[in-house]
Task: structure prediction
Amino acid sequence: KTIKRFTSSTTGNSPANGVAVDNKGRIVVAGFAYINSTQQYDFVVARYLSDGRTLDTSFNSTGIATYDYNSPYGKDDVAYAVAVDSQNRIIVVGSTPKSPTIGTNLDFAIVRFSEDGITKEASSAQISYYPNPYDDVAYTVTIDRSDRPVVGGRGYFGFNYDFGLARFTSTSPLSQDNTDRKSTRLNSSHR
Result:
C-alpha cells in the first residue's frame, strides 16, 4: 500500500485534482496551491518515481513545479486535470481569470511542462462566443495521436453553460488553433 501526502510550504489548501502516469512509470499529480510569494493560488505539479513515495528530483530539481499565469488581475489559477504526452511532457488544464472580478470571467488555461519540468509553455482560450463576464473552465484533457492536447470543459453560450472543446498544438509555442474550438448545446433532442 502506497500512500503519499503532499504538504506545501504555503498557507491554505493544496488539493490534487488530477493524476497520470508517464511512459517511464512515473506518477504525475496536478492541482493548485496557495503560493505565499504570489499571494494567490497557482498550478502545481508533483512527479513521483514509480514507487509512488519518492519525489522525482529530475523534475525541476525538487520534484515539484508551479505555474503562475501572472494575470494583471492577480487572481487564482486553478488546475483540474493532467495528461502526459508521448514525449513525457506534462499538460495541466484548468482556469485563469481574465478580469479583476473574483470567480467570474475565466478562460480555459493550459500549461505544458517539459519532461525535466524546467520549460513551461502556457496558453489560454476563450471558448464562449459571448464577451465578458462569462466563465470558460477546462475540466479534462487527453492527448491525441499527434501529441496535441484536447481540452474539454464548459463554456457560456447565451443562457447556459454547455460543452466546450479546444485542441492545442503539439509544437512550440503552445497555442490554440481557433478552427479547433467547438461548443455543443445539449437539449432534449439529445436523449
Summary: The two ends are 42 Å apart (CA to CA). The mean pLDDT is 80. The chain has no helices and twelve strands.
